[in-house]
TrEMBL record:
Pfam family membership, one: GGDEF
GGDEF domain span: 356-489
Transmembrane regions: 12-36
Entry protein name: GGDEF-domain containing protein
SMART domains for the chain: EAL (SM00052), GGDEF (SM00267)
Organism: Halomonas heilongjiangensis
Organism superkingdom: Bacteria
Keyword Oxidoreductase annotated: no
PANTHER family hit by this protein: BIOFILM ARCHITECTURE MAINTENANCE PROTEIN MBAA, DIGUANYLATE CYCLASE DGCP
Length: 760
């Protein structure tokens, strides 16, 4: 073959190869350009949705701070006194003396509050508590109104959140302003999370009034600074309602700024990423398809098509992952707050069109914080995943479950046939969590408090339904935990009243607002008074007498029952010692709570009070309810034997209401039974009660136990008890509970005591 032919063949091959390469380049370009735009658009859309979800989480915390501020500013009594001060009827010093301890007690209920400034109607500071910035009154305009509801201010050289809450009279006129200062640890923890946007991203919370940027430092501490020249225009646009993605700079200095305003006016979320790292995934995904396309064109279009198919799948998978991170919780894989909000909005639209009901269940785990703190956050995360799986199984597709954050979950139930169906689901979720969780070699018991709100009865927007379900959840947690509660319009007001009552009860212990009343106990034969039961009353500064039924349950929930019990025990023993010194043969009976017996040092308390008062032990009777003895016999029997060893008398209160075996009486060192008044109320005449009373008296006689009949109000009841052989009684027929000085005047004279005093 001649040289010319070889050269011609080489030219043909070269031209063919160049044609194939040119065709490959054209095909690769025609494929890559639309693929690039689709991938980039997906990345930008899902990232914007993820920023929106982060903004919603931040906005939730801001609204939480504003709610706390409104609760403090809404105290009715403090508002009344502010009006009186404004009218000249109350001096500034009196107003401050009244308000300061109450506000300090209220601040102590939340670890997030670090300081408070209360201003009068003229904008002058009435009092300052905790840590506050200098010159805080400058936050007000000349007309006395706050320039912004919330803003960032420096406190001790670190940024803090200042929330302004106006204090309004009943007429709506402004009478003062509260400036509350909150720590920013929760917000900066959100902003310092690298998992959402990557380690190269910087997340900022944009504050109003000049656009201060808040972020978290390397140690999680809050940092605030002014926007730079690149961020400044976007911050200004955010204040005007802009939401979107903006690219700025060139080459290696190109950056991507993503901004979303929050629902709370003036605030926004700004995320800044290097464009290279942000779009690197797009170019990484596209580089391989282009090279493969060019190479495959040498072998034909068929191989090229087959090669593109898995690569496109990889691109779709990456987009799916990005979209999933924007809609689903990274820890539990449940829908996140953003996705739940979208789902609830869609469900509301459908419910409005179909005129049907739906329910929102707000679930908060009981005592999860203690587990997390004691066993560590990694185990806490595993526990949350296990909780999510168990709740999903319990729902069985009847509702949409999602995680709001922390230990809070939300359930949306559509097409609700009746309100009771939501309550049934709540019970099933609580039952599902009753079984212990076994995580990391630990057996963990959890409960849940659930709040329920219904559409349309309790709200017509997603925000209202979630907020009202949250309020109902806190009501369930305040009642007894591990239960559910339906939202009612009165819950908000009741929640505020309960808060005021708890603050007032703590103050009552410190300021001597508690009093002891005494109800006498007498022998049936002759009417001689042999003792008295000590009963607590709370007299508020306004002169209202608050009965124990209102504040004793609250004391048990808030941990005040031990302090109350010690106070009652000490006052009762000191009064009984006075009777003893006057030569009166009187006992005093004091009720013990179950918490004192099982969780407190009641033996040490009784021993110390007897030593301090000098009271003879046999003159003190301690009463424990039958219900507690039946349910806590094993835990309490040792304590009761120690108490009996001190020489005091032990009595079973409310006897007959326990509905259980009487075998526990043989094990307990008790000397007296107090028959519950429910068995006395309808005798004579109620055959069942008559038989029960006769049986109790006969059994007590055989066991050598004394008996006191409670609730005797009529002479005919006393005569009937005398006929059965009952020796002691207590009730309105003898006397209602009376203050100590009234008791002393009536029964403390040393006489052989008295005949019954008719109830008035």
């Amino acid at each position: 073959m001649g040289g010319g032919t070889r050269r011609a063949q080489r030219r043909i091959v070269t031209l063919a190869m160049m044609g194939i390469l040119a065709t490959g380049a054209l095909v690769g370009a025609s494929t890559a350009v639309p693929l690039f735009h689709v991938t980039r658009d997906r990345l930008e859309t899902t990232t914007l949705a993820s920023v929106q979800a982060q903004a919603d989480a931040v906005d939730h915390r801001l609204r939480h701070f504003e709610d706390l501020a409104r609760q403090l500013a809404g105290d009715d009594e403090i508002r009344r006194r502010l009006v009186s001060h404004a009218d000249g009827g109350l001096s500034r010093s009196s107003l401050v003396a009244y308000s300061a301890p109450r506000l300090r007690d209220a601040m102590a209920q939340s670890e997030e509050i670090i300081g408070l400034v209360r201003l009068d109607s003229a904008g002058e500071a009435l009092l300052t508590l905790g840590r506050t910035p200098p010159g805080q009154q400058q936050a007000l305009r000349d007309d006395g109104k706050a320039s912004s509801t919330a803003r960032l201010v420096p406190v001790d050289e670190a940024p803090a959140l200042e929330v302004t809450a106006p204090i309004l009279a009943d007429s709506g006129a402004p009478i003062g302003t509260d400036l509350l200062y909150f720590r920013l640890d929760d917000l900066t923890a959100l902003l310092a999370d690298d998992d959402r946007f990557g380690a190269a991203a910087h997340q900022y919370l944009v504050a109003p009034d000049g656009g201060v940027l808040l972020t978290g430092g390397e140690g999680g501490e809050p940092l605030a600074r002014a926007p730079d020249e690149v961020e400044g225009p976007r911050v200004q646009a955010l204040g005007e309602g802009w939401s979107g993605l903006h690219r700025t700079g060139m080459g290696s200095h190109e950056q991507v700024l993503i901004g979303v305003p929050t629902v709370t006016p003036g605030w926004g979320m700004l995320v800044k990423l290097p464009a290279g790292s942000f779009y690197a995934e797009v170019f990484r995904v596209l580089a391989w398809p282009l090279l493969v396309t060019l190479a495959m064109m040498l072998l034909g279009a068929l191989v090229t098509a087959r090669a593109l198919r898995p690569l496109l799948s990889r691109i779709d998978e990456q987009a799916r992952r990005l979209e999933e991170s924007a809609h689903y919780d990274a820890l539990t894989r449940l829908p996140n707050r953003y996705h739940l909000g979208q789902r609830l909005e869609a469900a509301l639209e459908a419910a409005m069109s179909a005129r049907s009901r739906l329910a929102v269940l707000f679930l908060d785990l009981d005592h999860f914080k203690g587990v997390n703190d004691s066993l560590g956050h990694p185990l806490g995360d595993r526990l949350l995943r296990a909780v999510g799986r168990r709740l999903s199984l319990a729902l069985r597709g009847r509702g949409q479950l999602g995680r709001l954050g922390g230990d809070e979950f939300l359930v949306v139930i559509e097409h609700l046939s009746r309100p009771e169906a939501a309550e049934e689901v709540a019970c099933q979720l609580i039952d599902a969590l009753a079984e212990p969780f076994r995580v990391g070699g630990h057996e963990i018991f959890l409960g849940a408090s659930i709040g329920i709100s219904l559409f349309p009865e309790d709200g017509t927007t997603s925000e209202a339904l979630i907020r009202n379900a949250d309020t109902a959840m806190y009501r369930a947690k305040a009642l007894k935990r591990n239960t559910w509660q339906r939202y009612t319009a009165a819950l908000g007001e009741e929640s505020r009243e309960r808060f005021d009552l708890e603050v007032g009860l703590r103050r009552a212990l410190e300021r001597g607002e508690l009093q002891l009343y005494f109800q006498p106990q007498a022998f049936v034969d002759g009417g001689r008074v042999f003792g008295a039961e000590a009963l607590i009353r709370w007299v508020s500064p306004e002169g209202e007498t608050i009965m124990p039924e209102r504040f004793i349950p609250l004391a048990e929930e808030s941990g005040l029952s031990h302090a109350l019990g010690r106070w009652v025990l000490g006052e009762a023993c000191r009064r009984a010692r006075q009777w003893e010194l006057r030569g009166l043969d009187l006992q005093v009976a004091v009720n013990l709570s179950g918490a004192q017996v099982v969780h407190g040092d009641v033996v040490g308390d009784v021993h110390r009070v007897l030593q301090e008062s000098g009271l003879s032990p046999e003159r003190l009777e301690l009463e424990i309810t039958e219900g507690f003895l039946i349910s806590h016999t094993d835990e309490g029997i040792g304590v009761l034997h120690e108490l009996r060893g001190l020489g005091v008398m032990l009595a079973v209160d409310d006897f007959g209401t326990g509905y259980s075996s009487l075998a526990y009486l043989k094990r307990l060192p008790v000397q007296r039974l107090k028959i519950d008044q429910s068995f006395v109320r309808d005798v004579p005449g109620d055959v069942d009660d008559e038989i029960i009373l006769a049986a109790i008296l006969s059994m007590a006689g055989r066991l050598g136990l004394e008996v006191v009949a409670e609730g005797v109000e009529l002479p005919v009841q006393l005569d009937f008890l005398a006929g059965l052989g009952c020796e002691r009684y207590q009730g309105f027929l003898l006397s209602r509970p009376v203050p100590a000085d009234v008791f002393d005047r009536r029964w403390g004279g040393g006489a052989e005591l008295c005949a019954p005093v008719p109830s008035r």
